[in-house]
């Protein structure tokens, strides 16, 4: 399994760059986690579907539609892809739905668990909300006296029209 392919897919679905994801130091650990839970075959199919159907086009709308339809909308690949997103943001692998496990089987480890000891502090959610992980990284003396500084969201490969519903 290629770490480069895994990181490229992860960058597409998280909205962070490959550089940022590699900077967390968690890419190898997360690749091992996904492989351990779903097996090499399903992960290879997921990355293959992404490479074959999503990366073929440079048009943002078509790319997002292909990602939504061919990967996230696939009954076998979609739950795994969504768990990879959650893994990057939270550092936790959440148990796959029981219906998915019943239909496709578990290749290895099951259940919900933290991927590595560093996963909590390196979760993308802390970067996304501009906060430090409570209990793990101090914000600095007197930092509570200043209002929080929320960083700009990273640019998303997924067009806003596909991620937001109109009223």
Can you offer a commentary on this structure?
Helix content is 56%, strand content 2%. It contains nine helices and two strands. It is globular, with a radius of gyration of 17 Å. The protein starts with a helix and ends with a helix.
Give the end-to-end Cα distance, rounded to a whole number of Å. 42 Å
Question: Would you tell me the overall average pLDDT?
Answer: 87
Overall form: globular
- Oligomeric state of the chains present here: single chain
Count of distinct strands: 2
Helix content: 55-70%
Radius of gyration: 17 Å
Low-confidence regions: none
Count of individual helical segments: 9
Task: Give the helices and strands as they follow along the chain.
Answer: HHHHHEHEHHH
* Lateral strand order in the biggest sheet: 1-2
Beta-strand content bin: under 5%
Major sheet attributes: 2 strands, antiparallel
- Given helix and strand content, the structural type is mainly alpha
Structure characteristics:
167 residues, mainly alpha, 2 strands, 56% helix, globular
List the SSEs and their pairings.
Blueprint: H1 3-14, H2 18-23, H3 27-54, H4 60-72, H5 78-90, E1 92-93, H6 98-104, E2 113-114, H7 119-122, H8 124-129, H9 160-163
Antiparallel strand pairs: 1-2
Helix pairs in contact: 1-3, 3-4, 3-5
Question: Outline of this structure?
Answer:
With 167 residues, the chain is mainly alpha-helical. The protein has nine helices and two strands; from the N terminus they run H-H-H-H-H-E-H-E-H-H-H. A two-stranded antiparallel sheet has the order 1-2.
């Amino acid at each position: 399994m290629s770490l480069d392919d895994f990181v490229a897919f992860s960058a597409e679905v998280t909205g962070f760059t490959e550089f940022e994801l590699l900077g967390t130091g968690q890419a190898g650990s997360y690749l091992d986690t996904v492989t351990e839970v779903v097996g090499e075959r399903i992960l290879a199919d997921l990355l293959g579907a992404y490479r074959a159907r999503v990366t073929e086009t440079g048009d943002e709308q078509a790319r997002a539609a292909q990602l939504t339809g061919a990967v996230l909308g696939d009954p076998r690949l979609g739950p795994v892809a969504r768990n990879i997103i959650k893994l990057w943001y939270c550092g936790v692998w959440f148990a796959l739905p029981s219906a998915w496990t019943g239909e496709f089987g578990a290749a290895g480890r099951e259940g919900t668990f933290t991927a590595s000891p560093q996963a909590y502090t390196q979760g993308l959610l802390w970067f996304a909300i501009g906060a430090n992980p409570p209990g793990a990284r101090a914000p600095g003396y007197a930092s509570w006296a200043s209002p929080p500084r929320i960083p700009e969201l990273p640019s998303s490969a997924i067009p806003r029209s596909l991620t937001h519903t109109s009223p």
